[in-house]
Amino acid sequence: METIKSYLEAMFASMANTPEVRKAKAELLQMMEDKYNEMIADGISENEAVGTVIAEFGNLDELAEDLGLTKEVEEVHEREHEQPRRFVTMDEIRDYIETQKKRALLIAIGVFLCITSLVPPMLADVINSGSRADSLGPALMFIFIGTAVGLFVYSGVIGGEWRYIEKEACKIDLATADMTRGMRSAFKSFRAVSLTIGCVLCVISIIPCILFDESAFAPAGMFIFVAIGVFLFVYSGVISGGFETVLKINDRETISGKYGRDKDDIEYTSKTAEVIMEVYWPTVTCIYLIYSFLTFNWPSSWVIWIIAWILRKILVTVFEKEED
What are the TM regions of this chain, as residue ranges (predicted)? Predict the structure, then answer.
């Protein structure tokens, strides 16, 4: 029966996502199920029953008039003729996601090196053992930056072959979308942990400044903490972005467009979670204003917005409802 459902999804993949089309799809599925169950009851094998059902109901052009979808089917043919969409196979999507993981690591390391490039000059001031140490700090800084730029360039090169997925009109089938959703779901816990640890590291990055007071170790330690936190943000973010790109390949106006979802279409696991997310930013604004007016610490209170943004990412990851 799953084979029949998958075939039906493929039949309607390019159809407009309207109430009429969804109703016709449900009616056709019911007819196919009735025929399948009838044949199974008559002692026909499952494979033969599936083949017969698909042969009898598997041509949407022939069924369009009976389903009241003549106009919609004609529109699909016109749209496909005017703007054909490149079909992306499951193997291509697997390779694309693996490439995204490699790119995520390269970009994250590059960002880490850019942030920590300021550390060598700071430590050189602490060592203060002569002109050689003074020159070593800036030299290491430029080595860090140069290496980071090289990683960014290489990341762009290996991602170039997949540019068509992001730029061209493409489409994927239901099986590929299900596979990608499964991979995204498995990655979800890692994403949440990465955001949480990264947020904690950014918050506690002030500790070196407290421990070392006016020493150059203070800002150096702070930059290292922040760099590790940002590394986790970038690494998990690039991979997560790859999953979202794949799930948004299909035309958003068609049935297959439901494989992906816009950020504004997020559904939460419960009504409580939905209420929390609705009042989240107003609450953050109140906290920011109350804290700032009570302490007059306007120069540093803006950090609340960064922490709030990261925390919201974590909450969305935790509370987001899985797609059916």
Answer: 104-124, 136-157, 189-211, 217-238
Is residue 241 within 8 Å of residue 107, measured between CB atoms? Answer: no
Per-residue pLDDT at 252: 62
Domain ranges of the chain: 1-82, 89-258, 271-319
pTM above 0.85, yes or no: no
Burial pattern 94-124, b for ≥16 Cβ within 10 A else e, equals eebbebbeebbbbbbbbbbbbbbbbbbbbbb
Chain CA centroid to CA 50, Å: 36
Provide the β-strand partners of residue 310.
Answer: none
Give the whole-angstrom CA distance, residue 75 versus residue 254.
11
- Residues in the chain where the model's pLDDT stays below 70: 1, 10, 13-14, 58, 76-77, 79-83, 125-134, 213-214, 216, 251-267, 299, 321-324
Question: CA-to-CA distance for 323 and 258, rounded, in angstroms?
Answer: 9
Look at residue 205 in the predicted model and tell me its pLDDT: 80
* Residues 6+ away with beta carbon under 8 Å from 268: 274, 277, 319, 320, 321
